[in-house]
Amino acid sequence: MYPQNLFSIAGIGFNLYIIFYALGVILALPLMFRLARERDIPASNVMPIWIISVAAAGLGGGAISWILGEVFDIVILGISATEWITAVILALAFYLWLLPWARGRVFRYMDVVFPPIALAVVFARIGCFLAGCCYGIPAENSWLAVTFPAGHPTAGIPVHPTQLYEAAGMLVVLALLLVLRKVPAFDGKLVWVFLASYGILRFVVEFYRGHPRPMVGPLSLNQVVCLAFLVIGSLMVLRKSPA
Q1: Whole-angstrom Cα distance, residue 32 to residue 119?
Q2: Taking 90 as the threshold, does the pLDDT of residue 1 lie above it?
Q3: Read out DSSP for the chain?
Q4: Phi/psi zone of residue 238: left (φ > 0), alpha (ψ -120 to 50 degrees), beta?
Q5: Are 92 and 75 contacting, i.e. CB atoms less than 8 angstroms apart?
Q6: Closest CA to 214 of 84, 70, 79, 72
Q7: Cα–Cα distance measured from residue 82 to residue 86, given in angstroms and rounded to the nearest whole number
Q8: Which pLDDT score is estimated for 243?
Q9: Contact between 73 and 30 (Cβ < 8 Å)
Q10: How far apart are CA 70 and CA 106, in angstroms?
Q11: Residue 130: is it exposed, middle or buried by C-beta count within 10 angstroms (0-12/13-18/19+)?
Q12: Which of 49, 79, 190, 210 has the fewest CB atoms in 10 Å of its CB?
């Protein structure tokens, strides 16, 4: 487990959590360029979309996290994937709607964003595992269980590696999106399939997560958001699919 800094640049510390998050963001860009090229989207339009996505994930996701902390009166450490995904969707939809060259084709452009987001989540969750955050509930009888070292809240207790569960699941989602991109369909297909798939994955994984997080009755707030993702994504796929 490496939550401690490995090195620093200009006084800014870098640990494996930050490094893997950054790797996911960086590697998402060439994939976005490739998907844009397949859809005849000019390369000059890709970089602004990537920058808006990164800014929205950090700033917008952080704002949503802060608001939720105030509403639930708890301290939320870090930004949940559901928060920054929501922020990216809202920011990109607004940004693209404002642009003359994208108006009327908003979801055609957003389709090039969500496979890279799936890739970024894979790396983010590996970073979480290496830093020891987003850990699972005790799992003494599971062969998948991991034990974090001294200093971790669960030190010495076998727990579910929920971070790796989500990383593996997102690899499957990424593969699904890359296959579906070749199937002729409607603009926005990859957006809605991503939302429905991630909604299912994260909803299930949340049952095995053990770290403190906002709850809404018996469900975590993330599960409530994921149910919304699943419903919206599924309804849009069914609505747009040919009869």
Answers
A1: 11
A2: no
A3: ---S-SEEETTEEE-HHHHHHHHHHHHHHHHHHHHHHHTT--GGGHHHHHHHHHHIIIIIHHHHHHHHHHHHTSPPPS--HHHHHHHHHHHHHHHHHH-TTTTT-HHHHHTTTHHHHHHHHHHHHHHHHHHT-S-B-B-TT-TT-B---TTSTTTTS-B--HHHHHHHHHHHHHHHHHHHTTS---TTHHHHHHHHHHHHHHHHHHTTB-S---EETTEEHHHHHHHHHHHHHHHHHHHHS--
A4: alpha
A5: no
A6: 72
A7: 6
A8: 55
A9: no
A10: 33
A11: middle
A12: 210
Q: What is the per-residue pLDDT for 53?
A: 93
Q: Tell me the two tokens of residue 216.
A: 């809404």
What contacts 205, CB < 8 A, 6 or more positions away?
162, 165, 166, 169
pLDDT score of 176 more than 70: yes
**For residue 220, what are the CA distances in angstroms to 22, 153, 227?**
27, 20, 11
Using the predicted structure, report yes or no on whether residue 238 has a pLDDT greater than 80.
yes
Residue whose tokens read 């969750």: 125
Residue 128: φ, ψ to 5°: -60, -45
Which residues are within 8 A (CB) of 8 and not within 5 positions of it... i.e. 6 or more apart? 14
- Which tokens is 90 given? 């809202």
Q: Cα–Cα distance between 179 and 177 in angstroms, integer?
A: 5
- How far is Cα 162 from Cα 3, in angstroms, rounded to an integer? 17
Instruction: Give the separation between CA 208 and CA 134, rounded to whole angstroms.
Output: 10
pLDDT, greater one: 204 or 82: 204
Mean pLDDT (whole number) for 124-132: 92
Q: Strand 12-14 and strand 215-216: pairing? A: unpaired
Distance CA 168, CA 173 (A): 9
Which two three-digit tokens encode residue 54? 């990164």
